[in-house]
Amino acid sequence: MAHEVDVLNTVPETEQGWITSALKNETVGGLLLMGAAAIALTWANSNWSDSYQSLVSYQIGPESLQLHLSLSTWAADFLLAVFFFVIGCELKHEFTHGTLSNPRIAAVPIGAALGGMIVAAAIFTAFNYGTTSQAAWGLPISTDVAFALAVLAIAGHRLPIELRSFLLTLAVVNDLGAIVVIAIFYGHGFYLAWFLTAVSLLVAFGFLQSRKVTSLWIFLPLALIIWYAMFRSGIHATIAGVAMGLLMRVRKTDNESISPCDKAELKLRPFSAGFAVPVFALLAAGVNILGTSLGQALSDPLTMGVLCGLIIGQPIGVTLGAFIVSRFTKGTLNPALSWWDVAVVGSLASIGFTVALLIAEVSFGDDAAMLVTSKFAIILTNLVAIIVSVLAISLRSIAIGRYKTE
After folding, report:
1. Which of 50, 129, 135, 138 has its CA at a distance of 20 to 30 angstroms from the CA of residue 102?
2. With 0-12 CB in 10 A as exposed, 13-18 as middle and 19+ as buried, what is 273?
3. What is the pTM of this model?
4. CATH classification of the domain holding 178
5. Helices marked H in 58-191 — which ranges?
6. pLDDT in tens, 285-311
7. Is the sign of the CA dihedral 122, 123, 127, 128 positive or negative?
8. Which domain holds residue 367?
């Protein structure tokens, strides 16, 4: 008979420090993200909206390298590459030391993340099938862990670390799925020579990591060249970030107090959460909504697809995906948690902002009207998602009984 495993295992003591640090940084980053988005939205709808548009569209960089780009493009392609590098490091840590290192336990957050993505994308496609916005089905598939943890910090600070750990793991897997979707479906052209160059340099990056090379003077220039080659290949440049993160060495030597992967994440996470993502939000979230009525927005299938995909699709998909996988693997819930807790995580998974804005940019960059509609939909949906999540957390605190499954 197969041994039973906890679906939401008690967090090992060796991992509690890493998870606590990650949660703290992501929570602070989420609050900054909220503030940056609020500033962008206010600025774009004020009497100084022209200055906001001038800032967003201001171009800088060498033309000879085809890097004379707008600030918004630099934020989406370069700053978010740092964000995705941190995600890559998180994934590598999880695959080696964390929840994802045990295939049976990893199956549950993976199933939850995939369930949320599939159901959300299906609902969006149902609303937009046959329309010009159908190709943007990736909009509701992402969960913004920083935003979600910020909501937890405000409304659910007493929730157990096991639930927060499950949310963090689910969001990391979700980010990986979103990265794959961006790489495959949202590139702009494809240039084989540049792609092969990027792949070759990534192989060199991984080889140097395996040889325990640690010099920043080697890796920083190499990382910039890899980013540039990926940028020129037509695949979104942020993919270079997650690829390098996954190639980082996560096992320390006898002479190291911390592995290069964990050290890089420790150093870059504050920059990613405290600067890169908020700056991206500041430059991407400013959409003029003064001339848009709520009724007009809700009549648009694009808005309804994002709204229903995230608010309905993610909670149902996350809970159903986790339940199906746990039943199939004969897993059992940690006694301290219940399926109501999984449903709470599902409601938090409906908070999707950073990657959703990125997909909106790459989907509708050449269509100003559709870009405005998609951003309005994302902002509206996140406001609703925050309210729903707070209600779910509040109801959890007064829920009677615990639900268990074998």
Report:
1. 138
2. buried
3. 0.82
4. 1.20.1530.10
5. 71-74, 80-96, 103-128, 145-155, 161-185
6. 888 877 666 677 778 899 999 999 999
7. negative
8. 13-56+68-187+236-398
